[in-house]
Each structure stands twice: as C-alpha cells, then as structure tokens.
Design brief:
Radius of gyration: 18 Å
CATH topology: Rossmann fold
Structural class: alpha/beta
Strand content: 5-15%
Low-confidence stretches: 173-177
CATH superfamily: Nitrogenase molybdenum iron protein domain
Oligomer: single chain
Helix content: 40-55%
Number of helices: 8
CATH class: Alpha Beta
Largest sheet: 4 strands, parallel
C-alpha cells in the first residue's frame, strides 16, 4: 500500500494547479445509495492524485449532500460517478436532461464511473485501483504506462490471497490445539 501511495504521489505532486482539470465525484454511498449530489470534501482518492476537487471549496470534509445547482456553478471539467449510485444518476439524468446538459463534463463526454470501495468496510484493493484510474483520467501523460483493469486484478489477487492465507493459518492452528 505504501508503494502505491508513494507512486501515486510521485506521479502527480508536481503538476501545477493550472494544469489540473477540476473534478467532482458523485453517487457516493452514505447510509444508502444516492445520486450525483452525494459527494465528499477532502476525498481520499482525489487527494491521492492531488486532484482539484471542486467540493473542497466548501471547506467541508467527509460525506455531504450538495444542492445540485452548486454543481452547475462549479461546472467541473471531469465528473466521476460511483457505481453504487449509478442507477440513481441514470434515472435522474433521464428526468432532468436539461439540468445535466448544462455541465461541461456531460457535454464533452468527460463523465466516468468508479468502482465502489466502501461497504461496511473498505476494500483497499479497489480503492487503489480506483485511484490509479482517476489518475489516468485526470493526467493521462503521467499514467500512460498504467492499465487500470490490470491494476485492479493485481491488487485484488494480492489482497484476497493474504486474506485467505490468514484464514487458512487460523484454521490450521485451531486444528493443532
């Protein structure tokens, strides 16, 4: 995990603010599923790649629900939708196309999904893969050597192997007693 954290930091820490597209993440789960208005200030995956999170201007940290009109004011360059809220977002989009088509990210096809990584616990492997994917979307040049799908498979295999090994060792130790 430290290697990944350092790699993400090294790839993005020297990008100046004027070279960073503004970003927004919506559809984040928070005591249930929500649409585009569910977001986070000080969002850890954006922080991992030094993204310019438009929500940070509120000064709030953690999960929050914004007024959708605020998103129009921010008008981020890129929007990420957490898959856990994707269906709600899609239904809302069908009902409110005029609203969504005011957003540059929608007009320019700069809307992306991310895999949910929090559900009662944090799936670190998925969070790491999401951070690499976000980095690749925001800064393609710094992440040109990264294949997010391969990263996800790699980290999932590493973390699952560790979990199964711990369970196996616990089980075998129990048999010896």
């Amino acid at each position: 995990m430290e290697i990944c954290k350092n790699d993400l930091d090294t790839r993005t820490k020297d990008i100046t603010d004027d070279k960073k597209p503004s970003a927004y993440v919506g559809g984040l789960g928070m005591k249930g599923t929500h649409g585009i208005e569910s977001t986070q200030g000080n969002y850890s995956l954006f922080n991992a790649v030094h993204a310019k999170n438009v929500v940070d201007e509120t000064g709030k940290t953690g999960s929050l629900l914004i007024d959708k009109e605020k998103l129009i004011q921010w008008n981020p360059d890129k929007i990420f939708i957490d898959v856990s809220g994707l269906q709600i977002f899609q239904q809302d989009y069908q009902k409110s196309k005029d609203y969504y088509n005011k957003l540059s990210a929608i007009k320019n096809g700069e809307i992306y999904s991310q895999l949910p990584y929090n559900f009662y616990t944090t799936n670190i492997d998925t969070a790491i893969a999401d951070a690499y994917y976000i980095g690749k979307v925001l800064y393609p040049e710094q992440f040109k050597d990264i294949d997010p799908e391969k990263r996800l498979m790699r980290y999932t295999n590493i973390f699952l192997a560790k979990i199964y090994m711990q369970r196996w060792l616990k089980h075998t130790v129990g048999l010896r007693n």
